[in-house]
């Protein structure tokens, strides 16, 4: 049985030659989009990844469940590149090398092929964040967007997700980059340090090359004044710095603001309330924006998140925040208010779509009137009931964030191809459920889920269509991915069923974009 790196390299060379690739000086044009298989089926070269740099052919190789970056050249592998190779040697008159697709290999590869490095999407109209908690979903995400006028954020993780999956931002970016290389996707993609709250965490994400920072202002906002009586509002406002009081009084108190034919008036009491709730957070946002500008010039996308609250964002509050950010010169690319209704994880919108549409339209008018930033839809996975409204009111100038739905489509793939493993995961999810609810708010009654023992193997994928079991499996990903009985088998099954996994995922993300109203280029 051949399984050494050298054997894998020789098999890759055989695969290339069997498919007519014997010159390594220019990128070959192959019609196949799927991997080029060896005779045994144990090795495959991804046809779309074939690229030439300096008379050396590079490609992604899959060998016995492992992925490698493969290179072959008649002139010899450059010594600066070869020094970090996992294996290097002669193969039938040419020189070849293999690298593991890790951060070090990514740094080398991006110097030759800049398209694998994430970029700012500030100029893109429609963007979608497709968080990949597994590090293997990027090809499926690319297949969903390849022929659409939408730019993907392929690397998107929060500190919470990194902790639960035992990954780092460098690993997240490298995994996405090699997925991009595997698919030969050159249209550009983003990377998002999601829901970051401190400069220290922001710097970790920036060090990994994430151009997008989602600044979560939860810990520097003060929600308490929303419930205070006017007497306490006046008392606390009087204690603020005189400069703040003067600015708020002059610019906001008892003023009316035209917003695309609608008028929003901010009463004096509400102006004071907003200052107490948001001024400290706005100061922090200004500091972060300046920090990003020093680090990345204009090549960054700052998203402001104010959605992690218990009550919907009032239009007057959104307007106060937006005008202050604009006055301070903060480069806001997108902003996430807290919308009316429930945007829970992995299920459709809970609430009245008509009322959502009425309020959402106002939020969109504010965004267009205060810098024309994008409205961002957090927990946007599977919100099909309101996507037509979102697409219409934003005119598709919007950012939609999804993450857990991609994990669920991986679980759906397991349910289809490996029922025994799915049954194990389903049972174990109940063991991790109580701990997971400390981190994620859901309303699912998991006692209503039909016992897994009562259904046939063919019926198992239907659990991924029920709200209760979707949320059960959605929030317990951390426990399941770290469970010794699950983890190895889970990734082995997805590797063995790679194309099925990616096609399942692509269809699901494509449904999001279709319902949103994104047109096809074709």
Would you identify the regions where 5 or more consecutive residues have pLDDT less than 50?
A: none
Helical content (DSSP H or I, runs of 4+): 40-55%
Total number of beta strands: 17
**What is the CA-CA span between the terminal residues?**
46 Å
Assigned CATH superfamily of the largest domain: Aldolase class I
Tell me the radius of gyration. 25 Å
CATH topology of the largest domain: TIM Barrel
CATH class descriptor name of the largest domain: Alpha Beta
Note the main attributes of this structure.
single chain, 522 residues, alpha/beta, TIM Barrel, 3 domains, 8-stranded parallel β-barrel, 7-stranded antiparallel sheet, 19 helices
Task: Describe the secondary-structure layout.
Blueprint lengths: L4 H14 L16 E3 L5 E4 L4 E3 L2 E8 L2 E8 L5 H4 L4 E5 L2 E6 L3 H10 L13 E5 L7 H8 L5 E8 H7 L3 H15 L6 E7 L2 H9 L4 E5 L13 H9 L3 H10 L3 E5 L2 E5 L1 H29 L4 E5 L9 H13 L4 E5 L16 H17 L4 E4 L9 H8 L3 E5 L1 H14 L1 H18 L30 H9 L1 H5 L5 H10 L1 H19 L6
Parallel strand pairs: 8-9, 8-17, 9-10, 10-11, 11-14, 14-15, 15-16, 16-17
Antiparallel strand pairs: 1-2, 2-4, 3-4, 4-5, 5-7, 6-7, 12-13
Question: Could you explain how this protein is built, in words?
Answer:
With 522 residues, the chain is α/β, with parallel strands linked by helices. The protein has three domains: 5-100, no CATH class; 115-221 and 296-403, TIM Barrel (Alpha-Beta Barrel); 405-505, no CATH class. The chain is built from 19 helices and 17 strands. It has an eight-stranded parallel barrel, surrounded by eight helices. Helix 4 (138-145) packs across helix 19. The protein is globular, with a radius of gyration of 25 Å. The model has no long low-confidence stretch (mean pLDDT 96).
